[in-house]
Amino acid sequence: MIQKERIKFLNQKKEKNGDFILYWMQSSQRTEYNHALEYSIIKANSLNKPLIVFFGLEEKFPNANLRNFSFMLEGLYEVNKSLIGLGIKFVLWKKSPQIGATELSNDAIVVIVDKGYQRIERQWRNYVANNIECPLVEIETNTVVPIEEASKKEEYSAATIRPKINKILNSYLIPLELNRPIKKSLSFDIDSLDIEELDNLLKSIDVDKNVKVAPDLIGGTSEAKSHIDFFIKNKLDRYDDLRNNPNLDYLSNMSPYLHFGQISPLFLTMKILETESPGKESYLEELIVRRELSINYIYYNNAYDSFEGLPDWCKRTLEFHEKDPREYIYSIKEFENAKTHDPYWNAAQKEMVLKGKMHGYMRMYWGKKVIEWSNSPREAYKILIYLNDKYELDGRDANGYTGVAWCFGKHDRPWTERNIFGNIRYMNDKGLKRKFDPDAYAKKINEYTVSN
Ligand SMILES: Cc1cc2nc3c(=O)[nH]c(=O)nc-3n(C[C@H](O)[C@H](O)[C@H](O)COP(=O)(O)OP(=O)(O)OC[C@H]3O[C@@H](n4cnc5c(N)ncnc54)[C@H](O)[C@@H]3O)c2cc1C
């Protein structure tokens, strides 16, 4: 059974005659711990009808490039295999998802979709809800606690959302086992791209191919599961004290998998809770409270990816200091090409460009310095969103928009006033040196640059 708080009807249409139930997979690109897939199977079985799963590849998605498309397609390759095992047909089209879902709905009894929080994802769902002749049911499966249940408004900080989440968390910690569909749909005569020919498919995709495939991370649920198993076994115990050291790899690497919905945050939570590890509290704070605070921000604040979305006190203090002289000012190209005077910043930028994932601790320093070395806070904002969305495998995500906003004071408190930053928290290389050896970090990245 799927909890009712995870279910939302996006239109008032009635079920109609049709050949199948349609699950339009979009934000939850997995077959395990996927409440939307489970709801679809239960629905299909209750009507004794087959289920079709559809995914639309949008080549015009903002910042679509070889890096994020190959990671996504690796995940969908596994989705297809797993659906075949369940007797479910997977339909993959090179088409805008909302257009594809609307077209396929002509023969569907009902359409089910997973919940998405970003502007474009909500626009797609609105379009389909208004343009199909049957119900569109949205199922929330990419958060542990459904976002509107945790809070009905934009939260001020982790301190304000944490008690709200914790109060109801236990009622959502329910394992999810998939039912099997009664009726198979594999022989349905609907065209689909051949995802088994992954290399050919990738070659045919019309996206920016200058952003290369991330060398160390392969997409897909089974990859995500092997990373988390390794992390729990070898790193979770020391996560709390070592995660802020970019020279030691003590993070879980879950962010790209969470971004594409290739792994479920509920599944991760259940796995972590099974352990007796001293690191589990810190990890769940990041995975649940911080991550769901980020989603809360983009869900309730439509200007989440621009300076305008910031709290008034942040905008006011940064604007007051906008004309303060800057020791260094770099253009977007200089930042992009890692051509600043600062070897630590350049190393962080190179780590992101080359590996597709900058260490979490360096992301804070990286963001703060772009504020310090740009013409204005508005320009800095644009540069950070552009670089983060283009190069991070986990970019274009609630956490990225909120991470950038955090650099400008969002979810933080005012600090002592200073040049350029006003009351926004400042970071410098002395702070890095107190935590770890940034020269060793820069050396490691530069060696990586040379060998790749
Ligand atoms: C300027 C800036 C940009 C960022 N851009 C992104 C981004 O594009 N995508 C992204 O997923 N995260 C982003 N973050 C947040 C954080 O740095 C990453 O989530 C984390 O480094 C991902 O690596 P991991 O999964 O190995 O982390 P782990 O430490 O192993 O964390 C596990 C999970 O907890 C969550 N988490 C961890 N740290 C945070 C945090 N600070 N805020 C919210 N959730 C968190 C993530 O879902 C993460 O996958 C950004 C932070 C900053 C300051």
Automatic annotation (TrEMBL):
The keyword Phosphoprotein does not apply. It holds the Pfam family DNA_photolyase. One of its GO terms (biological process) is photoreactive repair. Its EC number is 4.1.99.3. It is an enzyme of class 4 (lyase). One of its GO terms (molecular function) is DNA binding. Keywords: Chromophore, DNA damage, DNA repair, DNA-binding, FAD, Flavoprotein, Lyase. It catalyses: cyclobutadipyrimidine (in DNA) = 2 pyrimidine residues (in DNA). Its cofactor is FAD; coenzyme F420-(gamma-Glu)n. Residues 19-147 form the Photolyase/cryptochrome alpha/beta domain. Belongs to the DNA photolyase class-2 family. This is Deoxyribodipyrimidine photo-lyase.
